[in-house]
Amino acid sequence: MVMLKKFEQLYKESDFFYLQAICLFLFLFPLFFQLSGSVFISNEIIFNTQGRLDLLPLPISVVACFIGILVMLRYEDGYYGVGLVFLVYMLMMLSTLITTSKQGEVGLEKYLLLMQFLLPMFGLILGHAYLEPKSYYLKFEAIALYVLLIIIPLEVVATLMGDTVILSPSLYFFSLYQHIQYLPVVFVSLYFLSIVTLFENKNLKYLILFLAPWFGAYVVASFSLITIITALILIIASLVILVHKGKKWEGLILVALFAASSYSYYMSVQNHNFITPTSVKELDLVEDSVSMEHKKNLIIEFEDVRKKIKNKYSQYAVYRVLPESIEKRFIYWDFYMQEILASPKVFLFGHNTRPNRDVYPSAYNYYLDIIYYFGVIVFLPFIYLFSIVIIKIVKIVKEGKGTVELFALFLIVMLFMIVDNSLKVSCRQPYSGMVIFFLIGKLLFQFSLLLNLKSNFKTTPKCN
After folding, report:
1. Is the separation of the CB atoms in 116 and 179 below 8 Å?
2. Which long-range contacts (CB under 8 A, 24 or more apart) does 305-311 make?
């Protein structure tokens, strides 16, 4: 009771929101450290850890998330997120115990995978604990905007001054990990949320407009189809929302700045020889092999599998019109689906070993990935989570309680849950996964407030 009173007193103080803002800034800032103790610095387009834990870059977000949970968590409202994470943990432990018959290296590998999947989910607890401040400048979206104002222009400048037209991982003082595979979609989504939430504020509006041309070049320089499509959807949605809010001309200026910058960057590099992220992965597949003979065998095996998959799915018209980057994913999806359905035990509790990492480095689908390793029993809480989100948004629409900001956040969550994680394993990565789960937790807490669910902290404390 004494501890609870101290927390209640803390929430009455305006200083809490400054402390929350600091935690969120560190949570969103993409600074990575390696387990060796050094700041992550690398010029490689796709960094290869070579299977060594001491080389694995971990974001400062991990530490900031746990500190933020201690600072922000309201015990009465924290049950949902904590309960879901605990349930997933227990089901993963059950799967690990059932599939790991012998202790040793195999068991250790499964436990490491467990932590890799579970760690990002703590962002759900942090998001559910977030309190909305009165001040625009301390909102989550404003904190995200501050981070983007540092990272995006710096990365575009580093790219323009480098030898390649694709996004540079090095920002001089530190490097970004997975700066092409996962960070761009997260950054684009955060920028969209800042537009929708902060455009009413005069000063923040100018910062958003200042960032628009930088983002235009950034999106094209990512050479990521998922990022480009997401950016196009969200920039159109931004225009619609701003017009709805009576900000027609500002919205048109925003779109014009973004489009002009995107077009200019594309025209300046269209004749440039560059390496795409996909081709980099294929080169890594070759470079990581131990011998020339082994390299040839891997390439032959990969091409044989690719031909079989093409023959298998080419009868479907949708498959024939897919971009090459999506088409290649069918190779991995087909393999993982066959392995998942190998036996009832595997289907329920998953595999105890990884597939050949040289040929099948990833499932390129978060849900297939988690079912492959831990079985369908661990997927059940995610089905429950998706169901809750859909049920509550339908209820809010029926009751007419929704806001533009809420629907914008819902759109982002749906893009991540349905599209992004069906093509990648974003929720398995420490940085992108934590941010995605944070947004889900934030959405769920907003649902609970709008639907007048029981809460001892319904009203937001005032901020000076």
Report:
1. no
2. 305/331, 305/335, 305/359, 306/331, 309/334
- Rounded-to-integer distance, Cα 369 and Cα 262, Å: 34
Count of alpha carbons within 13 angstroms of residue 100, beta-carbon side? 21
Half-sphere exposure of 157 (CA within 13 A, CB side): 8
Which stretch of 146-155, 219-228, 300-309, 394-403 has the lowest confidence by average pLDDT? Answer: 300-309
Assigned token pair, 403: 């806001």
Instruction: Report the run of H or E that residue 319 belongs to, with start and end.
Output: helix 317-320
Distances (CA, A) of 287 to 56, 280, 358: 19, 10, 10
Contact 224, 184 (CB under 8 A): yes
Higher pLDDT among residues 260 and 46, named by residue: 260
Q: How far is CA 319 from the centre of its chain?
A: 26
For residue range 77-91, what is the model confidence (pLDDT) as tens digits?
545 566 677 778 777
Please give the span between the terminal C-alpha atoms of the chain, in angstroms, as a whole number: 28
Is the Cβ–Cβ distance between 127 and 441 less than 8 Å? Answer: yes
Q: Residue type for 202, please?
A: K
Name every residue whose Cβ is closer than 8 Å to that of residue 254 and which is 6 or more positions away in sequence. Answer: 195, 208, 209, 212, 235, 238, 239, 242
pTM of the model: 0.87
* Residue 170, CA atoms < 13 Å, CB-side half-sphere: 12
Count of CB atoms situated within 10 Å of the CB of 119: 21
Predicted confidence (pLDDT) per residue in 232-243, tens digit: 999 999 999 999
Q: How far is CA 57 from the centre of its chain?
A: 16
Mean pLDDT for the stretch of residues 216-225: 91
